[in-house]
């Protein structure tokens, strides 16, 4: 990696001790190996749970696509919003190490809570105000929903115009229900629904303490101007994907074999292993992530307040579930007013932070520091674009895999829809060493792209991935309106290559551009940008919603057409955003003052 001379570098100093004891791990400080493993186990839990969440909401609790995508988007948004506060608390009171330990305990408790889901929701349908029981039968691997009317079973069949046909045993249409007059839902246990939201709440708060501060400790391993930093973060990022690789295969497998509880239990075990590695480090991380030397210890007060935030998060999720849809034709103002409390808080926090931090930088730092902070803020905006598209993986892409993908692998075995997310970490593990070597090789020749150009490459890769599915859906779809699983795998290859151009680079960028005294909070800002993207990603997934009955679609062609239309639109948006960033790259590069 090419950097300016040591005297000219403007990379921000870490607020923590930066040293190496002389013992290295693949040319990096030995402590990176333990942090790599801690992060791998934490991500094992997080991604294992994420692989199940949308399917759990739609198939067990029988939430509609819109409701499930909203919960998923709100959850992942709040998971990435809380690091803004967790980073600040670590910088000023707890230190990174204690924050990580406390966060790990809360997250493990949340995963354990998700194990208690109770009996599946009972499906029903409402036609013009009258409620009917719904029965779902499975024959020859295919599910069919039936509406039960006075003991008579009528097969439910969706039409392309949105209407629903009720078909008798003789194959004749007994009744046609116009679009908008047929509503499907499920009778859910209030107790177990509340427990599910409580588990998500604990994970949310815990992640705020864990996520920004483990990355801050990694940055502290490298001294100012150390050229290994980007490569170190790439190795660290591969640890994330090693953890998610195994969990996204094993958690859905256990859920299929033994029930949802087993998949969530395995996620809890992974999170517990992460905590144990941090708690019992044998002194290997001594001197890193220690509390700042100031005043009396306020850790117990912070822990108590954090626990009180868990029921507050539960209230936010409950409000999210119960918020009605935006009124048709109400426009942008109507959309904003119809947002749940979480959406309003999230967007307000992001907009205020994006304005307040540059202003504070101009008043508190040098002109050069302020320009570097402005460059970081601009890059956060484009990270929102990328992550909005990338995070369709846990929502619309998982549902697409469930409904419009042939999950047979060469006719040898079939994957579950949740397991298809494994293509992302598998691609990362394969591609990460190659990308790291590519950047190093280009750097030796003075050809390594700047950070803004790498971000632009990521946006192009995300767009091309969606175009792969659009092509397959138009030219390589079967009679059952399902595409081969190979096309979905190819999308994840494109998205994984794109991810390597932005996520590890972005983590490293923040530790280099941020002013030393707020590096933890700026790492939180990075995750705040992901939080906004997660929420928007949930809204995008809602646009791709398909009507279901008893958790199953009623018209596979309509489902396919809906997904392809949305994928084509967001693919075009990704390409356009990448082109804009390429045009701005020279300006942003000057603001970075030599940081690469």
Automatic annotation (TrEMBL):
Record-linked InterPro entries:
Dipep/tripep_permease, MFS_trans_sf, POT_fam, PTR2_symporter_CS
* UniProt keyword annotations, A-Z: Membrane, Peptide transport, Protein transport, Transmembrane, Transmembrane helix, Transport
Q: Where are the transmembrane segments?
A: 44-63, 69-90, 102-122, 191-210, 231-255, 261-280, 300-317, 337-360, 372-390, 422-443, 455-475, 481-502, 523-544, 564-588
Q: Where in the cell is it found?
A: Membrane
Q: Which Pfam families match?
A: PTR2
Q: Which residues form a coiled coil?
A: none
* Topological type in the membrane: Multi-pass membrane protein
Query: What family does the database annotate?
Result: Belongs to the major facilitator superfamily. Proton-dependent oligopeptide transporter (POT/PTR) (TC 2.A.17) family.
> Which PANTHER family does the annotation name?
OLIGOPEPTIDE TRANSPORTER-RELATED
What is the name attached to this protein's record?
Answer: Peptide MFS transporter
Give the originating organism: Sphingomonas morindae
């Amino acid at each position: 990696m090419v950097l300016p001379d040591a005297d000219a570098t403007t990379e921000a100093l870490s607020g923590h001790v930066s040293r190496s004891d002389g013992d290295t791990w693949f040319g990096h400080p030995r402590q990176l190996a333990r942090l790599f493993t801690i992060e791998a186990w934490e991500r094992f839990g997080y991604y294992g749970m994420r692989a199940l969440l949308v399917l759990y909401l739609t198939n067990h609790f029988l939430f509609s696509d819109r409701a499930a995508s909203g919960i998923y988007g709100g959850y992942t948004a709040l998971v990435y919003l809380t690091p803004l506060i967790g980073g600040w608390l670590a910088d000023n009171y707890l230190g990174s190490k204690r924050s990580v330990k406390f966060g790990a305990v809360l997250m493990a408790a949340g995963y354990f809570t998700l194990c208690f889901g109770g009996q599946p929701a009972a499906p029903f349908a409402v036609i013009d105000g009258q409620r009917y029981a719904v029965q779902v039968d499975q024959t020859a691997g295919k599910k069919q929903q039936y509406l039960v009317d006075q003991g008579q079973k009528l097969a439910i069949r969706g039409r392309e115009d949105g209407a629903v046909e009720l078909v008798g045993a003789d194959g004749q249409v007994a009744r046609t229900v116009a679009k908008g007059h047929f509503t499907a839902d499920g009778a859910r246990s209030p107790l177990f629904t509340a427990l599910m939201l409580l588990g998500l709440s604990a994970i949310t708060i815990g992640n705020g303490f864990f996520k920004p501060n483990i990355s801050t400790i990694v940055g502290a391993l490298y001294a100012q101007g150390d050229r290994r930093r980007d490569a170190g973060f790439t190795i660290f990022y591969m640890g994330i994907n090693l953890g998610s690789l195994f969990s996204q295969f094993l958690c859905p497998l256990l859920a299929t074999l033994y029930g949802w509880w087993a998949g969530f239990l395995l996620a809890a075990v992974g999170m517990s292993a992460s905590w144990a590695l941090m708690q019992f480090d044998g002194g290997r991380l001594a001197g890193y992530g220690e509390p700042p030397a100031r005043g009396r210890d306020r850790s117990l007060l912070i822990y108590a307040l954090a626990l009180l935030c868990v029921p507050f998060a539960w209230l936010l999720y409950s409000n999210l579930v119960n918020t009605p849809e935006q009124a048709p034709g109400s426009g942008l103002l109507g959309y904003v007013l119809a947002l749940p409390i979480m959406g309003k808080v999230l967007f307000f926090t992001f907009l205020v932070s994006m304005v307040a931090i540059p202003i504070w930088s101009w008043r508190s730092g040098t002109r050069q520091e302020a320009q570097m902070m402005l460059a970081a803020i601009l890059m956060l905006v484009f990270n929102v674009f990328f992550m909005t598209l990338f995070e369709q993986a846990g929502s619309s892409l998982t549902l697409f895999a469930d409904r419009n993908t042939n999950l047979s692998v060469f006719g040898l075995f079939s994957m579950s829809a949740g397991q298809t997310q494994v293509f992302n970490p598998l691609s990362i593990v394969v591609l990460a060493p190659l990308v790291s070597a590519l950047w190093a090789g280009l750097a030796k020749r003075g050809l390594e792209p700047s950070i803004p150009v790498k971000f632009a490459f990521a946006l192009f890769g995300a767009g091309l991935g969606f175009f792969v599915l659009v092509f397959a859906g138009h030219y390589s779809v079967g009679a059952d309106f399902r595409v081969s699983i190979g096309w979905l795998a190819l999308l994840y290859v494109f998205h994984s290559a794109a991810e390597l151009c932005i996520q590890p680079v972005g983590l490293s960028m923040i530790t280099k551009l941020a002013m030393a005294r707020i590096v933890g909070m700026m790492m939180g800002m990075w995750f705040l940008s992901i939080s906004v993207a997660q929420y928007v990603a949930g809204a995008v997934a809602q646009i791709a919603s398909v009507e279901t009955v008893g958790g199953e679609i009623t018209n596979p062609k309509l489902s396919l057409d809906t997904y392809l239309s949305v994928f084509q639109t967001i693919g075009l948006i990704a390409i356009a955003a990448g082109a804009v960033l390429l045009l701005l790259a020279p300006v942003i590069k000057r603001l970075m003052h030599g940081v690469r």
